[in-house]
């Protein structure tokens, strides 16, 4: 890179528009959408779409709800020409959809374009020619008058050809290509000259499309350019002002939103930002940005994954995993604090309430995405994410302090592996750590005697265990089964906390119990147990905790087989 890039690159000179009004506007309604996936998107592919792929894309665009679709540059190739013919001859264009085709301002191309549209019910003919200084000088070796003449003569020819075919409802669109790099007064002069020939009326409007063929400046500058044209174009009430932003600086979405605030009424772009170089503006992001503000875009992305897979198939280009709204990872949090906030937000979200889940700008379910991938666990994750996955994928709702304890075990795992821990791997670890914990204590069965009649409110318990592989029966009494077990066990345990819930629904549901224990004067630790019987689940949870500590030492070496005075 150069140390002084100014010697090679000049800053774009912004337009002076001190009384600009667009910064105070808000977007409250969607624009007219025009998909150019089959033209600008297609012309930028390594392998342009076959007729079959074009048809699949066309049908998908119709299903999404596009009413204007640029289907081809019919004079460019036989495939493009044949595709337009197929749409018309096989009556594949719904009554409320208008196809659009592009042509350069060259007579032979214009004639072939109009021929391709023979028999169409309604069609937009889109004429373009570049008007900016570099293109005038380098590509056309001409002056302003030369490029204006091209536009005017192209329009005259299209008017003559379309007037001669009254069976089609013709809509004319003119693009001063490279508008974003052109002198603004000259852009207006060319557009006015073109509309002067076409003679649009408020009932039969013409489309003036102002492309950022190459994105040259910050989005506010493009917005100023659009507002200036909006205010100065002749026959404004007979025009639909359209924009066609490219994404060279990565700002196409922002530039389009500001351009709409500045007076544009229509947007041309592609799904997922397909198109020349860095692409056309991404219509999915634009539409869903509106949706996230409570404005229905008039396009349906309820099954975003299906639309993405059609786009990937037709373009042979993958959608980035972090692509707004559509990428595989955009509704996924790995980091602990985000997971924690999402988990809390999800828990409080009312089904019909206003969406307020931190870090998730919209509800993934609205786009047909599931909540499964919302939280994924790696070394950046904390207890919130771990707990969310265990609860949502496996039904275990761990108490808060136990979440912290288990997250430490997960952290050791992720620090060791360096990668992601799947929901299944996490559950396997949970089982190993708590439910199937190998250790000296094993639950075999129990009998509970309730003695409310004697007024003490005590229960007596007899628990059959295997200890160090040998059968052992212990008995004890207390105010509840856990207190009774604590009294019965030959190790000094204190049960500090207890939680239980059903796993699943119905009478056959199992119970999950979690206990926090202290063995002798040791540190606290959790145990977990699952059983159809709630008391058995609690007893298993105590033994699980015991197995996780060194609390077995107290009975080691004893050869006891029964510690029940009654047995
Ligand atoms: C910004 C955009 O996306 S604009 C759309 C661009 N899309 C495409 O180009 C895809 C389809 N195009 C094609 O398939 C081909 O370019 C064709 C079939 C239309 C024409 O092919 P060719 O006749 O071989 O011309 P080629 O593309 O090489 O060159 C362009 C010529 O057209 C001229 N030209 C370019 N744009 C225009 C225009 N809008 N109006 C009039 N002339 C134009 C160029 O100055 C050049 O003229 P020259 O040969 O006298 O120097
Ligand atoms: C034909 C025009 C609208 C175009 O594609 C562009 O300028 O990018």
Automatic annotation (TrEMBL):
Coiled coil: none annotated. Pfam families: HMGL-like, IPMS_D2, LeuA_dimer. GO terms for molecular function: 2-isopropylmalate synthase activity. Residues 31-305 form the Pyruvate carboxyltransferase domain. Its cofactor is Mg(2+). It catalyses: 3-methyl-2-oxobutanoate + acetyl-CoA + H2O = (2S)-2-isopropylmalate + CoA + H(+). Mg(2+) binds at residues 40, 244, 246, 280. Residues 437-567 are annotated as: Regulatory domain. HAMAP family: LeuA_type2. Catalyzes the condensation of the acetyl group of acetyl-CoA with 3-methyl-2-oxobutanoate (2-ketoisovalerate) to form 3-carboxy-3-hydroxy-4-methylpentanoate (2-isopropylmalate). This is 2-isopropylmalate synthase. It comes from Chitiniphilus purpureus.
């Amino acid at each position: 890179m150069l140390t002084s890039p100014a010697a090679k690159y000049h800053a774009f000179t912004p337009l002076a528009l001190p009384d600009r009004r667009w910064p105070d506007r808000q977007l409250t309604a969607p624009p007219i959408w025009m998909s150019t996936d089959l033209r600008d998107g297609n012309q930028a592919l390594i392998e342009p779409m076959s007729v079959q792929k074009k048809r699949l894309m066309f049908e998908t665009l119709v299903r999404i709800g596009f009413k204007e679709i640029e289907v081809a540059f019919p004079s460019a190739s036989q495939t493009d020409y044949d595709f337009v013919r197929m749409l018309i001859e096989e009556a594949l264009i719904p009554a409320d959809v208008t196809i659009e085709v592009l042509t350069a301002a060259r007579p032979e191309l214009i004639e072939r374009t109009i021929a391709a549209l023979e028999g169409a019910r309604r069609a937009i003919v889109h004429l373009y020619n570049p008007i900016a200084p570099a293109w005038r000088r380098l590509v056309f070796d001409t002056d302003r008058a030369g490029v204006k003449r091209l536009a005017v003569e192209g329009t005259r020819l299209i008017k003559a050809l379309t007037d001669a075919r009254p069976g089609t409802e013709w809509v004319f669109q003119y693009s001063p290509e490279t508008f974003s790099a052109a002198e603004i007064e000259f852009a207006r002069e060319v557009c006015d000259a073109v509309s002067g020939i076409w003679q649009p009326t408020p009932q039969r409007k013409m489309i003036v499309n102002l492309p950022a063929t190459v994105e040259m400046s910050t989005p506010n500058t493009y917005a100023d350019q659009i507002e200036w044209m909006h205010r100065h174009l002749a026959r404004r009430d007979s025009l639909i002002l359209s924009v066609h932003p490219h994404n060279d600086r990565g700002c196409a979405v922002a530039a389009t939103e500001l351009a709409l605030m500045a007076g544009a009424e229509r947007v041309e772009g592609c799904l997922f930002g397909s198109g020349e170089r860095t692409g056309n503006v991404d219509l999915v992001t634009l539409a869903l940005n509106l949706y996230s503000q409570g404005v229905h875009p008039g396009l349906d992305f309820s099954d975003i994954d299906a639309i993405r897979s059609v786009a990937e198939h037709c373009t042979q280009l993958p959608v980035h995993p972090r692509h707004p709204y559509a990428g595989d990872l955009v509704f996924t949090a790995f980091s602990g604090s985000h997971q924690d906030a999402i988990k809390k937000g999800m828990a409080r979200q009312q089904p019909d309430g206003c969406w307020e889940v931190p870090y998730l700008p919209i509800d993934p379910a609205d786009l047909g995405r599931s909540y499964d991938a919302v939280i994924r666990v790696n070394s950046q994750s904390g207890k919130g994410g771990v707990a969310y996955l265990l609860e949502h994928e496996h039904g275990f709702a761990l108490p808060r302090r136990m979440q912290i304890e288990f997250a430490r075990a997960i952290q050791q795992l992720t620090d060791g592996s360096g990668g992601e821990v799947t929901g299944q791997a996490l559950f396997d670890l949970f089982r190993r750590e708590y439910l199937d914990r190998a250790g000296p204590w094993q639950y075999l069965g129990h009998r509970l005697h309730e003695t409310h009649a004697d007024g003490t409110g005590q229960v007596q318990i007899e628990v059959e265990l295997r200890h160090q592989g040998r059968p052992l029966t212990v008995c004890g009494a207390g105010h509840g089964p856990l207190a009774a077990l604590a009294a019965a066990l030959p190790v000094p345990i204190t049960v500090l906390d207890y939680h239980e819930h059903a796993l699943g629904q119905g009478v056959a549901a199992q119970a999950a119990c979690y206990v926090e224990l202290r063995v002798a004067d040791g540190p606290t630790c959790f145990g977990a147990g699952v059983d159809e019987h709630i008391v058995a689940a609690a007893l298993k949870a105590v033994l699980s905790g015991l197995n996780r500590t060194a609390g077995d030492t107290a009975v080691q070496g004893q050869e006891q087989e029964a510690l029940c005075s009654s047995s």
